[in-house]
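Thread: Modeling a multi-component assembly for a lab meeting

Hi all, long-time lurker, first post. My supervisor asked me to bring a structural picture of a complex we are working on to next week's group meeting, and I have zero experience with this. I have the sequence lines for every component (630 residues in total). Could someone generate the structure of the whole assembly? Inputs are pasted exactly as I received them:
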Amino acid sequence: MRETREPGVGGRGSEPPTSGQEPDNRQPTTDNVNWPLLYAVVIGELAILILVFYAFTKAFA
Amino acid sequence: MRPIDWIVLIGTVVAIVAYGVWKGRHKKNLDGYLLAGRELKWPTIALSIMATQASAITFLSTPGQAYADGMRFVQFYLGLPIAMVILSITAVPIYHRLRIFTAYEYLETRFGVGTRTLTSVLFLIQRGLSTGITLYAPALIVSVILGWNIHLTNVVVGLMVVLYTATGGTKAVSRTQVHQLVIALGGMAVALIIAVHSLPHDVTLVEAFRVAGRMGRLNAIDFKFDLKTPYNFWSGLIGGAFLALSYFGTDQSQVQRYLTGASAAESRLGLLINGMVKVPMQFFILFVGAMVFVFYQFIAPPLFFNSVQRAKVATSPYAADYLALEARHSQQFVEKRADVQTLLAAMRAHNSAGIDTATVALRHVQARETATRAAAAALIGRTQPGADNSDTNYIFLTFVIDFLPAGVVGLVLAAIFCAAMSATSSGLNSLASTTVVDIFRRLGKPHATDAECVRLSKLMTIAWGVFAIGFAEFANRLGSLIEAVNKLGSLFYGTILAIFLLAFYTKRVSGTAAFFGALIGEGAVVWCAVATDMAWLWWNVIGCVVGVGAALVVQRFVAEQKATKPLSS
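Re: Modeling a multi-component assembly
Sure thing. I ran the full set together rather than chain by chain. Output:
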């Protein structure tokens, strides 16, 4: 990725981490994520939750 | 508190602090100190984002909110997943491309240093005060219920947070937050299980649900549109989305969490996971409160849950009045318990007419009990003008202390303090970043070295910690604390969001127009807060819409100023 640095932005913080900071490489990676699908899943889950909460409200009211 | 509770509480808190100090022990440059070397993966980012938002107030005040007002507060979070998607598409790629330290740095590229400084200062005011409340909330509540010294509690918790936040920086904050959130949610889960198990043996879980529902405590969704109602579907979805956009997209305490991502994809995924988990999590916490409410239909609750205020009114000239209210409340509880038993009997007999009749009777006595509690609160207000006469924040912890077994009380208290420390550490961390990056290095000493900036960041963490502790010492009369924090944020979030939206999406609006648009938007919010009874979630919409609209109008009148091209295009 091209690094864009504009005046007043970012400063001198782009140096590699100093030694002793172990890389956080034990966790899952994000390769090949289908972003549009994931966005749809998030919104779909919200819609389902709203329906479930509404049914919950009505069922016990 | 029994010895085992003290062992669990102290052991957990000390272990977390030690872990934070250990995790952040390595010497760092500014990138390493403020952004954990930009190497974190999405699970850590997601949990860190959730832990930053879920302070002790969430775990103390939210169940009380469900007890007093039902579960409709969950609607407040409905806009959050939408905001997570929008931010993943828009803000995250821009922030990562620029490799910024704070959200406000981006604004300078678009509108100049004035707008960057204005938003930084608005953030410092709002977050500085909020961090004080975050620290104050658990200290206040445990001081009342356990008799601890509030000043000492504030100082001890505050100093512990400062210790690992100042030494370890963002990495220590994010790593500890993962464990803190797990402990906090674990404590709530144990409290829920025990609350359900403490119900009378002949009451099933479904019957408990039906009693809570009949008494208006499972009212999770209300589609009625009303600008004056604080929580309904529309205010939650629209106002909540604006609030979440501003909080997660422009508040450095959150932006800093996902700027630590090893890539834009890691940050995105962290935000999206937050969007998927947050609403069910809040539903769960509110549900704990609803079950505590059901529990108190069978066991007599105190008339007023704040024991310190109870003791004060008992020794005041209003003592006889309060005793009379207590007697009335006891009588109403007996009536209510009988009505609950009648309702349960009708439910078991599948007697629809009997269920309706019992529900009407139950709601009637519930209304009278609510009026009695309101009279007690008013009496306390008269006894001590200026005293906090809301007991919402004390309900859950009173239940924990009075009815949970040894060891579990310590666990729940540890959960509450973990939550307090996690939110406070993010607050201090972001305040230090903004002070150093946007104020000191931008306006004071542009050529400061990394070592100087790291040293100053540590000092600023300590300084803001002292400020938060100091503010916590003087905070009082905040009503429902979770509302207080969000109301305070809503005074500023709409305006800040307006500035960011102008930066992201407009090409022709200049820095001057954005600056004045923001001032006009902020004025509109203050007017709504002071002169109208509009529900506070809508302030976020007003600040944003008026801010953007005013900037577009001002742009037509200000001298032609060449607007720079937006970075998102």
